[in-house]
Amino acid sequence: MMEGFLIRSVVSVALSFLIAARAYKHRSLDGSGALAGFLVMAIHIAASYRFGALLLVFFFTSSKLTKVGEEKKRSIDEDFKEGGQRNWVQVLANSAIATILVVLVAKMTGGKERCLDTKESTLITGLIGGIIGHYACCNGDTWSSEIGMLSNAQPRLITTFKTVRKGTNGAVTVEGLLAAAAAGFVIGLTYVIVGLLTVECAHDVIWRQLLVIPVAAAAGLCGSLIDSLLGATLQFSGYCTLRKRVVGKRAPTVVKISGMSILDNNAVNAVSVLATTLLTSVACLYIF
């Protein structure tokens, strides 16, 4: 057991360094983001190959989608960065909660891989479920936003269902919501496939792990909806008549569209992730 943990630790440091360096080179992360990403990634992989896989799938798919349709997104999003470059704040907003849970699971299991099974351990099952929900939410929110901005359909504000301009916080499209569910599905599928290759479970428990896929798909959609609801109510959106685009800060030239100036984008992401993590954790206690 300790030998397996030591091997994962060595693999985690080498692989995390290579991926963080590549992300920095390709401008997916800035310097602070690369450092934070390296630490977070190393912890995830050392704790479990499954946890590392969830993080990597989220990071790579989100980074690729961010770069699709850059010209169109640049005209819509005031915070657009070339290549979707993320800093340490954005990295931790999408990984801090999961990292804490990953460390707790590793400490409780002594580094041993475990299946979702409340008969063996209710607490560990709940914590693992929370990690799955965390990345299903992060992936779902990112896919929803990136694909939603490219949609030809006019988005609707989730609180009133009135059509609003693209880039408005809390605006949703059918394509975006379907993307959120698909993103969660990919997270669940990743967890199951890597788990089958790296974790030994009792025969009856193995097949129950397949339920992670629909659970993660639901978490992806749920997380996106929570994020949109928070964005529409607690995050300010306005239209700047001077810059001719939707902005997130009040100014004399800005006409309010929706929301209050209580949370910024990172705070909205963090709250929606926390809520989805808790909901998925509880759901796993009943399902597994």
Automatic annotation (TrEMBL):
The keyword Lipoprotein does not apply. It is found in: Membrane. The keyword rRNA-binding does not apply. It holds the Pfam family DUF92. One of its GO terms (cellular component) is membrane. Coiled coil: none annotated. Keywords: Membrane, Transmembrane, Transmembrane helix. The chain crosses the membrane at residues 6-24, 36-60, 88-106, 172-194, 206-226. It is a multi-pass membrane protein. Belongs to the TMEM19 family. This is Protein PGR. It comes from Elaeis guineensis var. tenera.
